[in-house]
Amino acid sequence: MINNPMQSMPSETQTQNPEYPDSKPVEAMKINRQFAWKVAPSLLISFKYAWAGVSYAFKTQRNFRIHVFVGALVIGLGFFIELSAVEMAVISLTIGAVLTMELLNTAIESVVDLTVKQSYHELAKIAKDCAAAAVLISALVSVGVASSLILPKLWVKIVLLLQTISS
After folding, report:
1. Which of 96, 88, 107 is nearest to 139 (CA)?
2. Contact 145, 90 (CB under 8 A)
3. Is residue 22 in a domain?
4. What are the tens digits of pLDDT across the range 17-45?
5. 15 beta partners
6. pTM for the full model?
7. Active-site annotation holder among 27, 87, 102, 109
């Protein structure tokens, strides 16, 4: 007989987290997750849900908007100084990594807030701080990558522009 993990799950009411005996009991999942993979009936609906996440982040997260604006500025600068396709791809990938980290940070913060509600918990702080640190590190790396690719060519353009103006 195949063992169904859903049968062993608590079906209702409250469960206590054994790792934190002093914590408040949480409501156990009441929804049967057997068909959870059927949430999105089509690929188009899946993309709609994903776009809703991007839209939410853009509307509510100041740092996400900053990263989008700076990323667009850097892409525009890359076209202006005529970076190669590979250089543009590398910059685009680093921008994508930063935006992805920002979305994950938002998701983690939302889940933590949902879990701890208005109370303080040291593990919640650690989760949120580490998620924010992931964004920070990816942003710093992306600045380093973009700088190493853009600054030398930008400097050459500026020097040539100044030479044409002075002559």
Report:
1. 96
2. yes
3. no
4. 445 455 454 444 445 555 555 677 788 88
5. 26
6. 0.73
7. 102
Q: What are phi and psi of 27, to 5 degrees?
A: -70, 130
Provide the number of structural domains found in the chain. 1
Residue 138 belongs to a domain: yes
Residue span of the structural domain in which 74 resides = 42-166
Give the pLDDT confidence of 122-162 residue by residue, as tens digits.
Answer: 999 999 999 999 999 999 999 999 999 999 999 999 999 99
Query: Would residue 102 show up in a list of annotated catalytic residues for this protein?
Result: yes
Per-residue pLDDT band at 6 (split at 50, 70, 90): very low
Tell me what the mean pLDDT of segment 57-82 comes to.
97
